[in-house]
Amino acid sequence: MNDLATAVLFTPIDIERAALLDLLPGRAVTDHDRDGTAYRSLELQGRKGTWNLVLAMGGRGNERAAAAAEHALATWNPRLLVLCGVAGGLRDAAIGDVVAATKVYGYESGEDTDDGRLPRPDALPTSFALHQLAMLLAEKGEWTRRIGTDAPRVFHRPIASGAKVVTGRRSETARLIALHSGDAQALDTESHGAMAAAARRSGVEAIVVRGVSDLVDGKNKADDLRDQPRAARNAAAFALALIEHADPGPARPPLRPGGTYIGALGDGARAAIGAMGPNAKGRIHFQDRDQFA
């Protein structure tokens, strides 16, 4: 599948990964081990071409998400990076809603002073092109064919991301988010790390898609068992549709850290390699000379 453009679909936890795989039944999946990190890949037929879809899982928290996204970006050199999973709902969100994030607030950034904490949320934008595509998908409603239900609401708003699991709207963290990131529609613990990793690499379009699994107030394990699979499934269906409708364009080769390629490929191709300077020396070694004229 090296001749296909790559999209990385990143799910932080197992319930999100399970929801995604459940929407891809009967697909031929290839397992990969890259420096001890496990990936799975398959071909995904899109509207404008076929994608090499790489599934990655990085664990909870922004630090793990950043490290996992960095590794996936360096390993696969993807055109798209989509972080997909569940989140806590804010504002007027309801269970099952989907949030296609326009930006991600790192709400924990700030300064601790003698007079108290001075919040300075770090806002990272998601891909404008993918945001435009997400709005079209939500408008047409075709993306729900995988889940077989009426279209959940899709919000195009920011997500707030930090290390804390917030379980009450009157908590200190919830008040902080409402005051300084008041337009956020959902809350999670991985998006800022993943988008920070994507922001440091050129040529990749990145976005976050989250399904609302709880409303912060009254969060409990029994409700999670019922609502998380539904929210994860809605987010996975929207994320897959987003990739399917994106244009893969020309493929890019995977990056191989530490490797260098110099030469020419194709019928009649020729390459000249030399050295310049005092006492310069050069050598070209062909592993199979019969392949070259």
Structure description:
This protein has helices spanning 14-22, 62-76, 128-140, 172-180, 191-199, 221-245, and strands at residues 5-10, 30-34, 37-45, 50-56, 80-89, 98-100, 103-106, 110-113, 116-119, 122-125, 154-155, 159-161, 186-188, 205-214. It is α/β, with parallel strands linked by helices. It contains six helices and 14 strands. The strands form two sheets. Strands 1, 2, 3, 4, 5, 6, 7, 10, 11, 12, 13 and 14 form a twelve-stranded mixed beta sheet that branches. A two-stranded antiparallel ribbon has the order 8-9.
Question: What's the arrangement of secondary structure elements?
Answer:
Layout lengths: L4 E6 L3 H9 L7 E5 L2 E9 L4 E7 L5 H15 L3 E10 L8 E3 L2 E4 L3 E4 L2 E4 L2 E4 L2 H13 L13 E2 L3 E3 L10 H9 L5 E3 L2 H9 L5 E10 L6 H25 L48
Parallel strand pairs: 1-4, 1-5, 5-14, 6-11, 7-12, 12-13
Antiparallel strand pairs: 2-3, 3-4, 5-13, 6-14, 7-10, 8-9
Helix pairs in contact: 1-6, 2-5, 3-6
Concise overview:
The chain is α/β, with parallel strands linked by helices.
* CA-atom Rg in angstroms: 22 Å
Number of strands: 14
Summarize the main sheet. 12 strands, mixed
SSE class: alpha/beta
- The share of residues in helices is 25-40%
The whole-number mean of residue pLDDT values reads 84
Form type:
globular
Low-confidence stretches: 258-262, 285-293
The tally of helices reads: 6
The ordered H/E elements are EHEEEHEEEEEEHEEHEHEH
Strand content: 25-35%
Q: Termini separation (Å)?
A: 28 Å
What distinguishing features does this structure have?
293 residues; alpha/beta; 12-stranded mixed sheet; two-stranded antiparallel sheet; disordered C terminus
